[in-house]
Design brief:
With about 375 residues, this protein is of the alpha/beta class. About 45% of the residues lie in helices and about 20% in strands. The chain contains 14 helices and eleven strands. It has helices at about 5-25, 30-55, 95-105, 115-125, 150-155, 170-180, 185-200, 210, 255-265, 280-295, 295-310, 320, 330-345, 350-360, and strands spanning about 60-70, 75-85, 90-95, 135-145, 160-170, 230-240, 250-255, 275-280, 310, 345-350, 365-370. Strands 1-2-3-4-5-6 form a six-stranded mixed sheet, sandwiched between helices. Strands 9-8-7-10-11 form a five-stranded parallel sheet, sandwiched between helices. Helix 9 (about 255-265) links the parallel strand 7 and strand 8 (about 275-280). The longest helix is centred in the first third of the chain and has 24 residues, at about 30-55.
Length: about 375
């Protein structure tokens, strides 16, 4: 079943549970509020489904990445949609533009995190996660609109935006810009007070929308009230960027399992157009296996292959040396995969156990995993014809 199919199945199941909870929660205190709090979670899953259907090359949904913040502490980040083979991270935002803008201006409740702060977390994590030695591209998809000042701020940070960009009241835009400025000379608060008085004098000649809102008493003495986001005034509608075409890496680091596959009587040949590397640990163990199990043709192909590739010394990367040894993470694998990481080359391997074990420790490698093959020529003489 596809990822979209699994997500749709979960959404249907969640909706059924919400209907059952609505019938059960009416008789006890606080039950109604608990049921209402579950609704947005189900709605956010619908946003994730929409985001996954708008991009290509979806790898995973609701994927958790580990990264380190500026203080060096380990953090986790939930990415709604990982697309384009891992080169695009999509965050689906379902909150209304008014609420997002209000939180950004400091009017949210305790613990509310603004979209700008979340974007900083996404950028920090993406710089520590490489796909084909390229950093993922961050996209924020707003399904209930986003204010134009927030869009400009996100673009300045390097985050792409998808969704409806709505206008903000001119007075609110000016105040938002003042809050963005760093603390400076003592003259700046005087300028803000002057700007707070101007809208009261110019309410008549301004737009009709400004004439109606001050009557409700939302702007007493020039203080900030709820952001006046004009959802009916859409400035632009942005779709997802075109699907990125992953660029293949020109350097390949060969694991022992790949060296065997390249010379095996079952699957030899077909390596071209790449610069091949192999570390000393891989070649040494490969020769031992070849001398024990290899046939004449396989040994001949192995010599041609070893002449073609570039032999390098074991030079594991610093992050590889932080791995904890276990039954799936041994010193030989650390030397092979760590050397490929230092060379910034894609490691070809059939050792998926090590790749998963390293990922569980927070280290993900750029690898190409293939099916394992064995040296069979030495056993063909005793094979039984079918």
């Amino acid at each position: 079943m596809s990822l979209q199919g699994v997500l749709q199945q979960r959404i249907t199941s969640a909706q059924g549970l919400l209907q059952r909870a609505e019938l059960l929660c009416g008789g006890w205190r606080g039950g109604r509020s608990s049921w209402v709090s579950c609704g947005p979670s189900c709605a956010s899953c619908g946003d994730v489904e929409g985001g996954g259907g708008s991009v290509g090359g979806v790898v995973s949904l609701l994927h958790v990445f580990r990264y380190r913040d500026a203080a060096g502490c380990s953090r986790s980040l939930l990415v709604d949609v990982v697309a384009d083979g891992g080169l695009t991270w999509v965050k689906a935002v379902g909150r209304k533009a008014e609420a997002l803008h209000n939180i950004w201006q400091g009017g949210g409740q305790y613990g509310d995190k603004s979209i700008i702060s979340q974007a900083q977390d996404f950028l920090s994590a993406s710089r520590q996660q490489e796909v084909q030695y390229r950093h993922p591209h961050v996209v924020f998809a707003f399904y209930n609109g986003v204010s134009s000042p927030m869009v400009q701020r996100l673009r300045d940070m390097g985050v792409a935006v998808r969704g409806d960009i709505v206008a903000v009241n001119a007075m609110m835009a000016q105040k938002g810009e003042k809050e963005e400025e760093p603390f400076g000379e003592e003259e700046e608060p005087e300028e803000e007070e002057a700007e707070g008085e101007e809208p009261e004098e110019e309410e008549g000649p301004e737009e009709e929308g400004l004439d109606e809102e001050p009557e409700e008493g939302e702007e007493p003495d020039g203080e900030l009230s709820l952001p006046r986001v004009q959802r009916g005034r859409v400035l632009a509608r942005l779709s997802f960027p075109a699907q990125l075409q992953p660029q293949s890496c020109g350097s390949v680091n060969l694991d022992i399992t790949t060296l065997i596959s390249y010379v095996s009587a079952l699957s030899h040949g077909a390596c071209r157009g790449k610069q091949l590397f192999a570390c000393a640990a891989a070649v040494t163990d490969f020769r031992l296996i070849l001398d024990t199990l290899g046939g004449p043709g396989e040994k001949q192909r192995a010599e041609k292959l070893l002449q073609r590739l570039q032999l390098v010394e074991d030079q594991p990367s610093q992050r590889t040396l932080r791995l904890t040894l276990s039954n799936k993470v041994n010193q030989r694998s650390i030397s092979i995969f760590g050397t490929g990481d230092s060379l910034r080359a894609v490691t070809m391997t059939a050792n998926s156990r090590f790749v998963r074990a390293a990922a569980n420790q927070g280290i993900r490698y750029n690898v190409f995993i293939h099916q394992p093959r064995a040296l069979t020529e030495g056993k063909e003489w005793r094979a039984t014809p079918l």
